[in-house]
Write a structure and sequence with these properties.
The complex is a heterodimer. Chain A contains ten helices and twelve strands. Chain A is an alpha/beta fold. Chain A has a single domain, classed as Alpha-Beta Barrel (TIM Barrel), CATH 3.20.20.70. By secondary structure, chain B is an alpha/beta fold. Chain B folds into two domains: 248 residues, TIM Barrel (Alpha-Beta Barrel); 66 residues, no CATH class. In chain B, the strands form three sheets. An eight-stranded parallel barrel of chain B has the order 1-2-3-4-5-6-7-14, surrounded by six helices. In chain B, strand 11 and strand 12 form a beta hairpin. Chain B is globular. The two termini of chain B are 26 Å apart. Classes of the chains: A alpha/beta, B alpha/beta. The interface between A and B is large, with 70 and 69 residues.
Chain lengths: 302, 331
Amino acid sequence: MTDTPRPPPVPRPRPYYWPKAQVDDFYAMVADSPAEIVYLGETICAKRNQVRHEDWLQIAERLTAAGKEVVLSTLALLEAESELKRLRALCAQDDYLVEANDLGAVQLLRGRPFAVGHSVNVYNDRTLALLAADGCRRWVLPVELTRDSLAAMQRTRPAGVETEVFAYGRLPLAYSARCFTARARDLPKDDCRDACLDHPDGMVVDTQDDNRFLALNGIQTQSARSMNLLPVLADLRGLGVDILRVSPQSQHTGKVLEVFHRTLTGELEPAAAAAALTPLMPTGPCDGYWHGAAGMDALAAA
Amino acid sequence: MELVCPAGNLPSLKAAVDNGADAVYTGFRDDTNARHFAGLNFTASKLADGIRYAKSHGKRVFIAMNTYPRPDGFQRFEQAVDQAADLGVDALICADIGVLDYAARRQPKLNLHLSVQASATNYESLRFYHEHFGIKRAVLPRVLSMSQVEHVIAQSPVEIEVFGFGSLCVMVEGRCILSSYATGRSPNTYGACSPASHVEWIETDTGLDTRLGGVLIQRHPKGENVGYPTLCKGTYRAEGQTYHAIEDPVSLNAMELLPQLAAAGVAAVKIEGRQRSPVYVKQVTRVWREALDAFAKDPSHFAPRPEWTAELAKVSEGAQTTLGPYHRPWQ
């Protein structure tokens, strides 16, 4: 932390299911990128086993050696005892900070430092104060909240708590017990045959009048459009945001991190940099939530 | 097993009480609850009437206060909590940690239930709410299979209420913002999913299109029954197919699982539908009362009677019912 916070871009846990070789390549790229913090681990589906817990720890070691702060992320939706068992193992280690993506994980982490991700609902200062008393050191603004809500949260933020904002990528919109990728293939979830591997950026769902609307990523629903808050970078800085989160995509994440970094250092001008990001997105930009509009709207990011 | 029925107004509350509900859940007439619809819900004085009516019949009344206040709206929630305590409700059903914290500290005598909107799907999460706020009961999200429900109950520090009947959220409640993605308003922030203010019904040459926030949800050929454009139940295109990519428009009906729910130790079964009419409340409450009584009398021979199923099918969304998540293959 410096006196004048400069939000570092941070890859959040890769939400998609990729083959292990692609995961290794991705984090080799991240190791050489300007990102300062890296979130690792499977947050969507416990059935995704290309990269196992031990593999994540190896990736974590390599990234730590490259000078990155590594955070281990937990599943957003916990249903089975087997998932809780893995969660306990993850929360029991103390080599890395853990990002809790469900209150069940918070319960296991209470009393020591932890972070909470965007699937833990922190909508007001009283909630954040209680979590901070439990040990929460970092929170993410719920993606549907506005700039004004963030400003109010920042005014009463407890000491020692960092604020992170989801600044780039397809938005996490919902989680379900059902797997929509398996559903598209008419397969039961228990026998999905790794259908998600065929959709490295999720499976796009169009409306019947050809509006690329959502991206289905297993049990998660994302926006097809990518959130882009680079145009409001000065505002984010003014509000004292500590960390900007960049959600990985299968292509161009290195370039996205580069553009964020060069904008943060002042080399690129935010509006021009934001325009440079648009062609790197799988579908196009949105930023409505930040401005209090529908999330899918593209206002400054248009 | 307690039967918990919905009421969006006083006639519905009376219909629930008269037809066999053990408890009725309600909400204030604002965005402090997840059925914030025009003309629905209770002013404090109407709720006082309702509570008097229910208590005189030996029944309980709960208030749902299950949206997520932002900092500038928190004070209204504090007032609502205090008002609920003043009214003497039997329980307050909350989701937000800040609201629960306020209620537990300021109104320690108030019974707190954890709303389905809190997204607590596992017992570690339930322990969090129990240890912090002393919640007495939790409503499980509609995502767990029957065996997962059994497992949660076996480990849970609090009694468990589950949904038995009504519209079905396919997403984990409290963590779905599809609605605000298209309209700016979600259950968490505004208390409504797919709000009517953003619905359009547009006649075309071939039939009727329904849109939400301008997004085409459904394209109905002429003469087809037109449903409400709920985002997760729309017809979309993916991988060359046009289909209900997320969920079919069906309702939950878990009646045939009553023996398993009872064996698992479920404390209460909840009927969805505060936005529905007093006639719906009356019909569904009466049928479920009969079913629960029949089960209590002869648990080993319980099966839903055809006339009950037919009656419930009449008021179901899409006129089809499913066991939903309780049935493993659904997952």
